[in-house]
Amino acid sequence: MSDLTVEMVQRGRGPSTQEANRRRGIAREIRSAREKLTSTTGLERAFDYELLRLYAQYRVGAGIPLGLFAVALAAASVFWVPPVVAAVWALCVFATITLITTLSRHFLRQNPGDVSLARWRRLFVLSEGMQSLCWSLMIGLGATGGRIFALFGLVIAAAVATMLGATVPAAAVAGLGPLVLATLSLLLFSREPDAILLVAMALGSQLFFMGLARRLYTSTVGALQSRAEKDAIFGELEQAKANSDEARRRAEEANLAKSRFLATMSHELRTPLNAILGFSEVMKNEVFGPHTALSYQEYSNDIHDSGMHLLNLINEILDLSRIEAGRYELNEEALQLAHIVEECRHMMGLRARQKGQIFLDFVDDSLPRLWADERALRQIVLNLLSNAVKFTPPGGEITIKVGWTSSGGQYVAVKDSGPGIPEDELGTVMSSFGRGSLAIKTAEQGSGLGLPIVKGLVDLHGGQFQLKSKPREGTEVIVTLPATRVMDTLPAMSVEPGNLPAKAAAKAA
């Protein structure tokens, strides 16, 4: 039977993350294509509305400046036309400016979802054409001697119309058309080379403004598309965050259920295990007499060893689950790291001698005490020595080092002369229940929890765990405890006899 992977489980629960992202992208593209098909400009409705909204905002903001500009032109035109004619022209321009400003304000006050984009686009184009027609009436000055002044006004009006209407290309064209015709009509009043050159320059300027308006429209659409993509990304991030929070909540519930299960199962398993271990030890030691069959002695040993192995496995699983859940409580006290290492080495000495292995000790006995959990440190050192003895070949060497770190902390390092671990398996041996290929091939007993437990206990002490190994060069594990856990020795206090209490001074005398 093939192994059940996380990907297979995830696929069974629902689509993967990549598949979900692909589906969201397809749905977004379909929605965008549908909106483009129903749009008259080939853009999505949201873009059409934004372009009209920008046009309305520009027109509302330009109302007062355009009115003042019309007043200035009307005042200057009295040199060529009667004041009444200039006033009528200014009122015409004022009326169209007021019309566009009123329409723009009304558009901005409406709910975006209720706006008829095609209708408002037609209104803006029509009003833009009317205003441009009023501006083009300045051509009357050309017949009375103000040709250059009229050209100046027409060029300025063309620049304003194309820039303000850039987000609605039809409105920009409607605003520029009457001004171009008015500029061409100036040739009817004069055919001098200078006049033709001025008209050509004015027409070139107006066409340049039209091209510039087209570029502004393109850049505005690009900015809107970029903003829409950014908003979509933000939306996906928010959705991903919500999914992550939900997944974290479920993981916490699953972890709580796992902790409850382990607590219950540990009690249910330890109760019969105590009986198995007790009775098997009685049978193994032949307390009530020798066995009639020698096989019973072997069976008793196997039962006891298997029970001890199962008990150790249960304890390791519980320790790892408490470490991962953050519920492992440290009972800290002052202790000597060198003494703990020496006691653990002595405990593992029998197993090492059975395999002909040699311990090489480089221990600094002058190290000050550490503030740490004694049981946790013993478990760390025993796990490291047990792995070293397990994977070191008969007659090999195991090096133990205890000393200072460069930052003022203390370290313990265990190095064996075994076959080593391939680089691609370092992550495997550090994972829960992970075992390297060497352990599997040699059928070495072990749960694969030793190193994860060591790393977890080291992390609880604020230390560092480092695993170094190469094939045919052995394996070295270095555990470093921070300088904050080193207890400095306080200097002796020198007190003068006169400063001692009466009883202490009498004893000192």
From TrEMBL:
Molecular function as annotated in GO: phosphorelay sensor kinase activity
Cross-referenced SMART domains: HATPase_c, HisKA
One Pfam family this sequence matches: HisKA
Catalytic activity from the UniProt record: ATP + protein L-histidine = ADP + protein N-phospho-L-histidine
Name of the top EC class for this enzyme: transferase
EC number(s) given by UniProt: 2.7.13.3
Region Disordered, residue ranges: 1-25
Database matches in InterPro entries: HATPase_C_sf, HATPase_dom, His_kinase_dom, HisK_dim/P_dom, HisK_dim/P_sf, Sensor_HK_Regulatory, Sig_transdc_His_kin-like_C
Coiled coil (residue ranges): 230-257
Entry keyword set: Coiled coil, Kinase, Membrane, Phosphoprotein, Transferase, Transmembrane, Transmembrane helix, Two-component regulatory system
PROSITE patterns per the UniProt record, alphabetical: HIS_KIN (PS50109)
Domain Histidine kinase: 264-485
Keyword presence, Iron: no
Entries under CDD domains matching the protein: HATPase, HisKA
Regions that span the bilayer: 60-80, 86-103, 123-142, 171-189, 195-217
Entry protein name: histidine kinase
Organism per entry: Methylobacterium soli
